[in-house]
Structure formats: structure tokens, C-alpha cells
């Protein structure tokens, strides 16, 4: 009775005489010690005195609220929802986060387009060094490993504790380890995976365009063909023209076309190779040449080929940023659905390509160009010119499409410098100028340094932690799993192994550069 009397003694807001007093509020004991309840003047412990009104003249009307203060189980989630949906105004001006109406289908298109490419065509080369057993084992383990780190990135995209959405890989890394470490360890690999990939796409797209022209025109063509540099320029003009689409969501259709063509040329190449049968004298014994040290570096190179076959982790957070998100409907749910679908298709494309290509060509597969070069060298007279031309066309279209999604982080980076400084969105003419400058800048690098592919192993080793190691360390830092738990051991093990693999690949790349040398022909692409 004493508690009831104390609660009843709490001052009540005066009301007209005709209105009955408001009954006292009660709540279950499990909510009594909640922080939000201790601020309520209607609830007290036995040792507390009921608050006294200072003056009768300043009585206040209780505030109106859609969520009562005493309903604490909803208090914290509701506050997180409000923070989660509160976005940085500058995000509405940048191409990655300008539109947030994406869905699982868009995520699947973007992930599939960015996750599979011409780098997969050299997978059979790794099998010539590793052999059947270790080739399949390493390819399977690498696929599972990179899919796990991709899942980590999807989960880390948004934090219900801070309400932040990390819409860019570098933003998440800086928030986890600080801006200084971000600029030192993550900035160059991420920029290389965007800008360097676009340079490689110009080289691949321009060279394949030249091959496509030769196939279509035939041996009897009397017209003077374009030079390699001119084909690079033609490809770059098409890529720059398509890059004028405003934001990441607007290129969903382009990514769909890129994904379809990527699956198209991967499937057509391995199907034709298997249908033509094994070449005479094919051997499946692992190739061992030179000294033991050279063989060790060959094995490391093969592991690097398998690791580099999976790409696109530097774009996962950007793709997820195009989706709406709330506490009830977090973006990680549709994003993971899109990722699962796309990587199922990627597995159906990569594994038959590697296994079928190695079965058809064995140790005879060319180390430069992989299965695509083998198709042209061994079956150019046996296979229909239509099939060869269609395969080349698929590669060109996929390269143009992939250029858009890999260039988008660079477009976003350049525009963010303007919006941060000027405090207003980038005008359309300046946005077009930025993208043209980037496209033709990549063209200049492709022409000036055509031997950039010789450094791919070295630079790829530097960029490898973005895919295999950094997500594990960021998960440990942000989620803080229990020490010595299975999750703790798994992420530490994969993170350290990824950094170790990156180190040995860098060492192998340096050794190859020193041992074999680089034929540095500036401004002389072949």
C-alpha cells in the first residue's frame, strides 16, 4: 500500500473539473530497471522520494509521443531505426548512393558482371602446374574462401549500433582502422582494382575488337585495318559514351548485358573445346621446369591465377549501398540473395571452364591468353567463323559493360572531391568531363604502358588482401567475437593466411620481373 500511496502522490497535470484524473501507470517488473523508466516521474523504487513540483503555476502538459516512454523494448530499436535511415546529405549527390531503389535483381546483375571476366580464361594454365587433384582442391577452397569474405562484407555494410551505412570499401576500412592505415594499406589496392581493371579492359577490349574485325572481314578483305592503338581508341570512345549514365542503379541493364555475355563466352569456349575433343599427345602431368626455386614460384603463380580469378569484392559495399535499408528490412537480406544467385552462376561458369579447358588442351594450353588463345590456335580452322566471331563479340560487350561498374568508384571519388569542397552537387557538364577524363586517361596508360600485364602478378599480390584478408580483420575489429571462439580462430586464420599469400605472391612477382625481365616498349602496344 505504501508504494501505491507514493505513486498516487505524484503531481498530476490539472484538468477541468469534469475530467476524471488519469489512473496511475504500472509496468511489469522486468521493465522496471530500464534506463528510460528511471527518468519517468511515475515510477520509483522504495528508496526514492516522489518528485515535488516546484511551483503550481508552471504545470506542464505531458508530451505527445507515438512511442510511450515506458515501452522500453521498442525504445532502443526505434532509435536505431531513426539513426539507420538518417543519411549523409552528400550521399544524394554522388553516383554510388544517388539512387537507393535497388533490389536483389540489380545486386545479382552487378555482382555477376563484376565477379566474372576474362581473367577466368587462364584458369586452365594453373591446372598445368598443379595437376588435376590440387587444381580442383585449390579452386574449390578459393571459391569458398572468397565467398565467405564476401558474406562478411555484406554483414558489415550497416551497423545497427552506430546507425552507419558504409557505402564504400575504403570508408569501412577507414572507420575500422583509421584514415592513416586506410591510406597506407587500402587506398592503392582499391584504386588499382578500379582504375587498373579499366586499363586492362581497354587492352582486352581493343585487342579483341581487332580480332573480331579480322574474323568478320576474312582473309580476302582489301580494306586497310586499324592499328592496335586505334582499336583501343574505338573501344575507349564506346566506354566513355556509355559512362554518361548518371549512377550505379542506372547501369543495372548494362550489368545484365555484361553478365549474360560473360556467361556466354565462358560457356561457348569450354563447350567448343570439349566438343572438338582432346588434342593428340595431351599430357596431364604437372609441368616441372627449371630448378626447385623456379618450380616453387611456378606453383605460387598458379595459386595467384586461381586467387585473381575471383574479383569484385571492392564493389560489394557500393552495390549494397544502392538498396534501401531499415531495421525491419535491412539491405543485407536482398543483397545476400543476389550474391547467392550470382555466385551460383559464376561457379557454373568457372569450374567447367577450368576443368573442361584442361581436359581438352592439357599441358599444351598457352600460358599467355589461356583457353581463348588455345581456341584460336588449335581450332580456328575447325570451328565455325560465326562461333569464333560471336565469342569475340561477347568478350567486347562484356569488357565495355564491366568498364562501367569498375569505373563507378573512380567517378564517385572524383565527384566527392568537388561536392566536399563546393557543398553542392556536381553539374552535369562537369560530371561528363570527369568521366571523359578518366576514360581517356586509362586509354593513355594502356597505350603508354602496354607491358602493364607483366606486372599483374606483382600488383595483384598487393591487391589480394582486399579480397581475402581485410574483411576478416574488419570483422574481428567491429564485431569483436569471443576470444578463442571458432569464429575468432577462423577469421584470424584466414586473415593471416591471406596476408601471407599476398606476401609470397609479391615476392614471386618481383622474382619473375628480375629473372625474366620486362620488355618495356612504351607507346608500342602490339
From TrEMBL:
Taxonomically, the superkingdom here is Eukaryota
The GO biological-process annotations, alphabetized, read as: amino acid transmembrane transport
Q: What is its main location?
A: membrane
Q: Which InterPro entries match?
A: AA_transpt_TM
User: What molecular functions are annotated in GO for this chain?
Assistant: amino acid transmembrane transporter activity
Pfam families associated with the record: Aa_trans
The GO cellular component terms are:
membrane
Keyword Aminoacyl-tRNA synthetase belongs to the record: no
Q: What is this protein called?
A: Amino acid transporter transmembrane domain-containing protein
Q: Where are the transmembrane segments?
A: 104-126, 132-154, 184-204, 224-242, 254-275, 295-317, 338-361, 386-407, 428-449, 455-476, 488-514
Please tell me whether the keyword Heme is annotated for this protein: no
Compartmental location: Membrane
Q: Which residues form the Amino acid transporter transmembrane domain?
A: 101-513
Stretches with biased composition (Polar residues)? 50-62
What taxonomic classification does the UniProt entry list for its organism? Eukaryota, Viridiplantae, Streptophyta, Embryophyta, Tracheophyta
- Skewed-composition ranges (Low complexity): 8-20
Keyword vocabulary terms for this entry? Amino-acid transport, Membrane, Transmembrane, Transmembrane helix, Transport
According to the UniProt record, where is the region Disordered? 1-62
